[in-house]
Amino acid sequence: MNQKDLDRISKDLDNVFKDMDNVFKKLDADVDKVFKQMDDIIKRAESVPRKIQLGPWQKWFAWRPVTIKGRRIWLKSVYRRRINTYVDHDDWARYEYGDMFDILKDE
């Protein structure tokens, strides 16, 4: 390889690095734009009025597996309560399962 070839390769590498630098600058700008959009979405989601209503604990037979404190319980009597969540004129219910200690903790 002679000096002329080395100079050509050096120029090509310089051009490649300049192109990469431009790509990374554009990528940084795009990432910043996405993060700003995500912040706006989170702020709007936090401003949505929501209400959570807890029902009373009731004794219930676990005819299907349920999780209480990380353990799966099945075919035993446990306690559960209904949790209603109201968001923007829409509501849904879910159940929370517990044992006697959860009931005592809440009273």
Biggest sheet: strands, sense, closure?
4 strands, antiparallel
The portion of residues forming beta strands comes to: 25-35%
Which segments are poorly predicted (pLDDT under 50) over 5 or more consecutive residues?
Answer: none
What assembly state would you assign to the polypeptide chains in this entry?
single chain
Give a quick rundown of the structure.
With 107 residues, the chain is of the alpha+beta class.
Structure keywords:
48% helix; 6 strands; 4-stranded antiparallel beta sheet; two-stranded antiparallel sheet; alpha+beta; 2 domains; elongated; single chain
Architecture blueprint of SSEs:
Layout: H1 3-46, E1 50-54, E2 58-61, E3 66-68, E4 71-73, E5 77-87, E6 90-98, H2 100-106
Antiparallel strand pairs: 1-5, 2-5, 3-4, 5-6
Protein architecture, described:
The chain is an alpha+beta fold. The protein is elongated, with a radius of gyration of 30 Å. It folds into two domains: 1-47; 50-106, no CATH class. The chain has helices at 3-46, 100-106; strands spanning 50-54, 58-61, 66-68, 71-73, 77-87, 90-98. The longest helix has 44 residues, at 3-46. It has two helices and six strands. The strands form two sheets. Strands 1, 2, 5 and 6 form a four-stranded antiparallel sheet that branches. The chain has a two-stranded antiparallel ribbon with strand order 3-4.
